[in-house]
Design a protein that fits this description.
The complex is a heterodimer of chains A (225) and B (253). By secondary structure, chain A is α/β, with parallel strands linked by helices. Chain A has a single domain, classed as 3-Layer(aba) Sandwich (Rossmann fold). Helix content of chain A is 31%, strand content 27%. Chain A has eight helices and ten strands. In chain A, the strands form two sheets. Chain A has a six-stranded mixed beta sheet with strand order 6-7-8-3-9-10. A four-stranded antiparallel beta sheet of chain A has the order 2-1-4-5, with no helix packed on it. In chain A, a hairpin with a 2-residue loop joins strand 9 (198-203) and strand 10 (206-212). The longest helix of chain A has 16 residues, at 162-177. Chain A starts with a strand and ends in a 5-residue tail after the last helix. With 253 residues, chain B is mainly alpha-helical. Chain B has one domain. Chain B has helices at 9-28, 34-85, 92-113, 121-152, 154-162, 167-191, 200-207, 212-245. The termini of chain B are far apart. Classes of the chains: A alpha/beta (225), B mainly alpha (253).
Chain lengths: 225, 253
């Protein structure tokens, strides 16, 4: 399942209105893109889905249950996050993959590396020596190791060079093709057209347009307001 | 306890001449410090006279309850000072005060219960003061490191939270490091005690005419007590402080 409903969701930080009464639905089994100009509130909104932050008012529901009523650690295992820049939390790739899944066997770790397009021998590499593209794919594999139903993707390719970006996007495309629910923050209209099924357009914290990717004006204009 | 080694009040008055020499030198050399030296010397004299008067009153009239009340005041002051080091941490002053209080109560409690030190205000107040001071330093360093670590490593900590780790688990590697950092000064000074510095308690006892053998016995107790107090204060500050870093929903504040 994994359907999200936002109801009148508002976020204020230090007196500033970041998200302004957004009501929307994220359909299960599809990739929904959050788009809009910088500072529109996309990344802030994304952090609400796994409760790294809570809304100031309004509610977020997952399959009809308020997020606040669910066990937050279990929720974060259901709803994985891949950030903009790869952040390493352990010394080696092997330890990275076990960070959220301590019982992961070596064979499973190698299988995960294969799923994100990395060679089996990468498993023993130190995390510090990875290229940007490799590190981002290790982060994706680390998130997949926990077994999430939903992936939150916060501009997952924006900090990578074009070649690495293409490789990561290809990997994500395969995962999404398998029917995983995803919420993607992206600056690139081209990427949104390639990856997303649905689009929510944010501007100044408000939801200004939404619908299937082909029907959304903002995307058709190439991401120009 | 009158001994020839203890200066009379006339001797104290004469020691003012040492300050005068320092002032003259500072003035002749145009160091711009003469005024500061005078202020520092007057302040120190007045503070010590005041503390002496308070202690005299405590020892003669207030008894053990008075001694513990004075200790409680010290804990409150130490909590404010150490709490300021953790500025930015939610409720840092409560955390600091509680940490100092726990460390002081346990350390001093053990010494008194086992009869290692006498439960008289004459002993409880100065020994307690040393424990509170050591706990304050360890608490302050722990909280300062904790705030720096939580700010500097925010992305790493949140990456772990996003994998479903609890706040405590997400912060565990940082906690280990900051506890090491907080305790290294205490452990280093414990290692070289007697070799590089003759510590205060021992120096004071020897000056007051006590035999070095007795002074050393006292100093060993003091050193062990300070190590215990620092370790307990740092652990308590790390434990309580870490809870304040995260909301009940395991979000990094």
């Amino acid at each position: 399942m994994s359907r999200f409903d936002l109801r009148e969701v508002t976020v204020r930080r230090d007196g500033h209105l970041i998200i302004d009464r957004i009501t929307a639905t994220i359909a299960p089994g599809r990739c929904t893109a959050l788009v809009g100009p910088s500072g529109a509130g996309k990344s802030t909104l994304l952090r609400l889905f796994n409760r790294l932050d809570d809304p100031t008012s309004g509610t977020v529901l997952l399959d009809g249950a308020e997020l606040g009523s669910l066990d937050v650690l279990a929720l974060r295992r259901r709803v994985g996050l891949v950030g903009q820049r790869p952040v390493m939390v352990a010394a080696t790739v092997w330890e990275e993959l076990r960070a959220g899944a301590p019982d992961l066997a070596r064979e499973q770790a190698i299988g995960l590396l294969g799923r994100v397009g990395l060679a089996p021998e990468m498993v023993d590499r130190p995390s510090a020596g990875l290229s940007g593209g490799e590190a981002q794919r290790v982060c994706l594999a680390r998130t997949l190791a926990v077994g999430p139903e939903v992936l939150l993707l916060d501009e997952p390719t924006s900090a990578l060079d074009p070649e690495a970006a293409r490789a990561v996007e290809q990997t994500l495309g395969t995962l999404l093709g398998d029917g995983m629910t995803a919420i993607l923050v992206s600056h690139s209209a081209d990427q949104v057209r390639r990856m997303a099924d649905d689009v929510l357009v944010l501007q100044g914290g408000q939801l200004v347009e939404s619908g299937a990717v082909a029907a959304v004006e903002y995307v058709n204009r190439g991401g120009q307001a | 306890m009158s001994s020839p080694a203890v200066p009379e009040w006339t001797g104290v008055a004469l020691s003012v001449s040492l300050v005068a020499v320092a002032v003259v030198i500072a003035w002749r050399q145009h160091l711009g410090l003469a005024r500061e030296i005078v202020i520092a010397a007057v302040r120190a004299g007045v503070q010590l006279l005041a503390v002496g008067a308070v202690l005299l009153f405590l020892f003669q009239h207030a008894g053990l309850p008075g001694g513990f009340a004075w200790l409680a005041v010290m804990v409150l002051i130490a909590g404010q000072v150490a709490g300021r080091r953790g500025a930015g941490l939610h409720h840092s002053r409560y955390v600091a005060t509680a940490s100092v209080a726990v460390a002081a109560a346990v350390t001093l409690g053990v010494l008194i219960v086992f009869g290692v030190v006498e439960s008289a205000p004459r002993v409880v107040v100065p020994v307690g003061g040393m424990v509170v001071s050591g706990s304050m330093q360890a608490t302050g360093v722990t909280l300062a490191r904790m705030v720096a670590e939580a700010q500097g490593q925010r992305a790493v900590i949140e990456a772990r939270l996003a994998l479903g780790l609890s706040g405590a688990a997400a912060f565990a590697p940082h906690r280990r490091e900051l506890l090491r950092t907080a305790l290294i000064p205490t452990l280093d000074s414990t290692k070289v005690v007697g070799l590089i510095s003759l510590p205060g308690a021992m120096t004071g006892l020897i000056l007051a005419g006590v035999s070095p053998e007795v002074a050393i016995r006292y100093q060993i107790v003091v050193m062990y007590m300070l190590v215990a107090a620092a370790v307990m204060a740092a652990l308590a500050a790390a434990e309580l402080g870490q809870r304040m870093l995260f909301t009940p929903a395991q979000q990094l504040r």
